[in-house]
Design brief:
Elements: H1 3-16, E1 25-32, E2 35-45, E3 48-66, E4 69-86, E5 93-112, E6 116-119, E7 122-125, E8 131-137, E9 141-149, E10 156-167, E11 171-177, H2 189-204, E12 208-219
Antiparallel strand pairs: 1-2, 1-12, 2-3, 3-4, 4-5, 5-8, 5-9, 6-7, 8-11, 9-10, 10-12
């Protein structure tokens, strides 16, 4: 899918909507799997609305210790979305398509803590120089498909609901270094790959970011 024309079309629609009647404007907010959200929508007709929003689930960290290492995990998710809503039945139900610009990343930094560590078939006494960094990232730009309720041409307060997904494959990368982890005669790349095989297999199953959100809007 060539996303550039879609993004350009949505950007033009949002820009030209400034000239639309004032009563068609809408601000909205909500909460869901993508965190807190705030956005602006513009009805172009009773059957079609364009909108954009920013959502963030923030950044979360977690510390963990095990035999051989101490680890710090970090997960962050922020996104900007541009959407077009079609109301095929003349009520609030809609079909939504668009594009999301994502900053979604998970990271684990593990450091040796001076106890016995096993990596693949290699076992050794780790030290503080032994480090493994694992990063899991989602594509920066992805198409979005979903259904929902709300954002139709109206006035006053309203209710909005979304269920859909940003479609794209997650990717995992790793780096390692240190007295033991950086010595291929002690710990081979095959050992590292074997240790991370389960994580990599789980990451490769991730082909979308699901989204469920609920909120309210105000048209003026």
């Amino acid at each position: 899918m060539n996303k550039t024309p879609l993004m350009a079309a949505l950007a033009v629609a949002l820009a030209t909507s400034i000239a639309a009647p004032a009563h068609a404007g809408e601000v909205y907010t909500g909460i869901g799997t993508h965190g807190l959200m705030i956005g602006y929508a513009q009805a172009l007709s009773p059957a079609f609305t364009v909108r954009g929003d920013f959502a963030s689930a923030g950044t979360h960290t977690r510390d963990e210790s095990d035999e051989g290492y101490n680890a710090v995990g970090k997960l962050s998710y922020h996104r900007v979305g541009l959407f077009g809503d079609w109301f095929p039945f003349g009520n609030g139900f809609r079909i939504t398509g668009g594009v999301t610009f994502n900053n979604m990343k998970g990271e684990v930094n593990a450091q040796g803590n001076g106890t016995e560590m096993t990596v693949g078939d290699a076992t050794f006494i780790s030290d503080s120089s032994d480090r493994i960094n694992v990063q899991i990232t989602f594509p920066k730009t992805t198409p979005y498909l979903g259904i929902g309720w709300g954002h139709q041409l109206s006035s006053g307060w309203g209710f909005v609901f979304d269920i859909g997904a940003s479609i794209g494959k997650a990717k995992m990368t790793e780096t390692h270094s240190g007295t033991h982890l950086g010595d291929p005669n002690l710990v081979t790349q095959e050992d590292i790959d074997a240790e991370l095989a389960d994580i990599r297999a789980d990451v490769e199953k991730v082909k979308m970011i699901p989204m469920i959100a609920i909120g309210f809007n105000y048209r003026f």
